[in-house]
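REQUEST FORM: STRUCTURE PREDICTION
Request ID: SP-0412
Submitted by: Lab K.M.
Chain count: 1
Length (residues): 676
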Amino acid sequence: MKQASENSTNNLENNSVRKSGDADGNKEGSGKLYEEIHFVDTEKSVWNYSIFSDEDISNFQNGTHYSLYNLFGSREIEVLGTRGYYFAVWAPNASYLSVIGNFNDWNPESHPLYVRLEKSGIWEGFIPYMKSGEVYKYHIHGYKGKQLDKGDPFAWFWERRPDTASITWKLDYNWSDEQWMGKRKKHNALDSPWSVYEVHLASWMRPDKNDEERYNSYQQIKDRLVPYVKEMGFTHVEFMPVMEHPFDGSWGYQGTGYFAPTSRFGDPQGFMDLIDEFHKEGIGVILDWVPSHFPYDSHGLFMFDGTHTYEYADMRKGFHPDWNSYIFNYKRGEVKSFLISSARYWFEKYHIDGIRVDAVSSMLKLNYSRQTGQWEPNEHGGDGNLEAIAFIKDLNETIYRDFPDVQTIAEEATDWPGVSKPTFSEGLGFGMKWMMGWMHDTLDYFKMDPIFREHYQDKFSFSMMYFYDENFMLPLSHDEIVHGKSPMLYKMPGDEWQKFANLRTLYSYMFTHPGGKLLFMGDEFGQTSEWNYKSELDWFLLQYEGHQKLKDCVRDLNLLLKSEPALYENQFNIYGFEWVDLNHRSDCVISYRRKGKKPEDDLLVILNLTPMVHRNWKIQAENKTEWKEIFNSDDKKYWGTGDVYNPAITTTLLEDSENRYELNVHLPALACIVLK
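STATUS: Completed
RESULT:
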């Protein structure tokens, strides 16, 4: 038996060293490194070893420890001159817990962990000589003697499905995105352009489009996707959940690995390299993150130690009827620490630029998808989940405290107030919110035969009635082209030419409307089938002129967005938008002004939403004597007619005192023109 030297603290790897102050992810940072090695019997298979301080445990239990990935899980360290792997897992109702894997022939009695005496529920220990790349699980004797084999909730790497074990791994990687990290505060600011390309990594492109079991590697995705997003001019890419998940059909939204990118495409370093490459090309990376529910797979979080460890025990709060999955217990401090640590982990270890938080509405509402009698009001008699609300506020406060140059984005579909307002103003603290109302109203309008559109102009213009309530992102996401909703192109009315013209006009309206933009993969070239996660996009369509030129149109809209400050500088304040003409309902001609910080940057946007050409159309504008057409969605280079354009625009002074002018313009059918 040996007693550890105090100097063995210096042998800890960087990824397990505690940092001082707030940088360690706690609200109350300990400011010191802690290590405790009990009397070790070096003949035993597991040594009694800990890196948890009393303060760590207190913060963990109170829901205020936000860097648990530096403590829990498995990590390679050196103890008493011996390298191996340290393990730590939370299982408060376990009576016995061991590490099993190929290294010990999955023998549950071979490598038992030690439970801490503070009744923290933490089991830990050091396995000497263990190597990186070993598969393992935790064997747990849980509540009432139930025996379970569970993956590691904090694992950095997992086996590729259908296998379900965790893998010992290191997160060493030499980042080369210093230039990006130094300037991303401006790139990710709310007064900068936001054009997001939403991607499902498995089905964007496959080695064999007909083989759902084959995937491109992270390296192959990097070689193909990064140049494509760069060419298309998007400012950001958003990945549907890449966190490890057992079932492809969940699209990643039913996750089991909250600290691991999926092994379908390779190892964690491969994913880091992909993000690194996006950053080197000046493109931000957003991850979908799902704290709203998790699946009941036997190796996952559900009934982790034989009881409802991570989920609410009351199924009126703990079960999602929509998704047949379970809901985190946001009241439990350890669960809150787990979730916020997960979010923070992706920013710290993977340099991401934002998270889009899925299904926020379901977290906020106790009666979400529940009938009367299936839910219980909160202590004030309301339908808000007070624990989830507190969790969301702490999440956003922590992320913006530690990473002030990123954004958090809420998928929230109700009229819940202040979703993107600061917590000190009674808001939830997100940076942006998906504008689901705009999406529904816009698609309803554009689906309509143009002959009826004059009767529904209010649906078109309603978005600006409430736009300034939040910082909105306009989403045309994956949810709009599945389950029988049809692809974007086939939502449009008319013959083939009119479908393309309508879609170009819809995208032009989207890119000139205030707010961030999000477009799902395939929408940019007019995918003709609904999205299918088992296949790949219909890339063969690009051999046809209409599809290729629609793609060119979206590319140029991205370039327009980034090159015209009026489209983004004031995109979230009342100074950036002004209706010019809403009085021609019967003609379905609508115009508005986008305004930058400098008057000379102002743009005039005119939409003609019927197949009727209007020549010599009169429109009034102030303060400007000269205008030029800088974008026309009917241009031949976008598969338009190219017959109606404005090489020269004549203006007539109407009121000298108000500096008001009348413009004479030609409006192509089913098109958008932008004047500057």
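NOTES: The chain has three domains: 6-167, 190-434, 574-675.
Reviewed by: T.R.
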